[in-house]
Amino acid sequence: MNVRLRTRLRTPLVIAATLFFVLAVLSLSFKHAPVMQAAEGLIISLTAPAINGLNWVGGSLKRVWSDYFYLVGLRKENAELKRRLEEYQLKEVRYQEALLEARRLEILLELKKQLALPVTGARVVAYDPSQWSRCVIIDIGKKEGADLGLAVLAQGGIVGRIIESYPHYAKVMLVVDRNSGADAIIQRNRVRGILQGKGGNRCSLEYVPKNADVEVGDLGLASGLGGIYPAGQVFGRVSQVDKKTGGPFQEIIVTPGANLSALEEVLVVKTAKLAFNP
């Protein structure tokens, strides 16, 4: 079958080759003949637009191909720039966090100098998820000297006191917890009352007679009585006063000076406790 196919193809190929040779000879022989020049002109006129179109298409394909590779390279470059930008943003966040932490620690260090009391630093590692209490967990415990009843301070004022202590952790009851209570005074005129936790982010100054002079904005301090909190440390500011309540006492709301919802670093005051009722 292959022999027959080769035989059948051989004849047309021979004819085509012969015609090509004859045309080449004629072209060389009659290159300057008017008839050949007219035929050549006609052929050029007919083929030139097609050749020009093919050149345009080829150029367009070349440009498209070049643009494609340019866009691929540009996409890779953009991806790399985006990655570097994300790295720089992450470094910026870390830098800002380190800067803020340094400022907080600087403030605590200044507070430590002002106290003139033995203190140790600690970090808040967790908040008590219970809805019935306001407590936090700090990363020091009995091994580090964080005993029951010790006062805990932070930037802005008193945080609370330790009510449970473990080998390397301790639980701190915040001053806004409903079970928290301590003797307090108004700085301006030394009016005394009991600072009682009310839940949320507020306390009340209890047992203050209606004729006592207490105003919104007054600063509430620890009196030092009871031996729980160091005298003169800030509980917070009076945010509400109501003398129209029934009974002999006015209703006074105190907002804590420390931001108890965003605690990170605290100081534990390592002094003897005169009274402690967890």
Automatic annotation (TrEMBL):
Parts forming coiled coils: 71-105
Question: Would you name any one GO CC term?
Answer: plasma membrane
May I ask which residue range the UniProt record assigns to the signal sequence?
A: none
Question: Could you confirm whether the keyword S-adenosyl-L-methionine appears in this record?
Answer: no
What are the GO BP annotations of this UniProt entry? regulation of cell shape
* Pfam families in the cross-refs: MreC
Sequence ranges assigned to domain Rod shape-determining protein MreC beta-barrel core in this UniProt record:
124-270
Q: Which UniProt keywords apply?
A: Cell shape, Coiled coil
Q: Does the keyword Coiled coil apply?
A: yes
The UniProt entry, under InterPro entries, shows: Cell/Rod_1 (IPR042177), Cell/Rod_MreC_2 (IPR042175), MreC (IPR007221), MreC_beta-barrel_core (IPR055342)
- Family under the similarity heading: Belongs to the MreC family.
Q: Which NCBIfam families match?
A: mreC
Q: What does this protein do?
A: Involved in formation and maintenance of cell shape.
UniProt-recorded name of the protein: Cell shape-determining protein MreC
Which species does this protein come from? Desulfobacca acetoxidans
Lineage in the entry? Answer: Bacteria, Pseudomonadati, Thermodesulfobacteriota, Desulfobaccia, Desulfobaccales
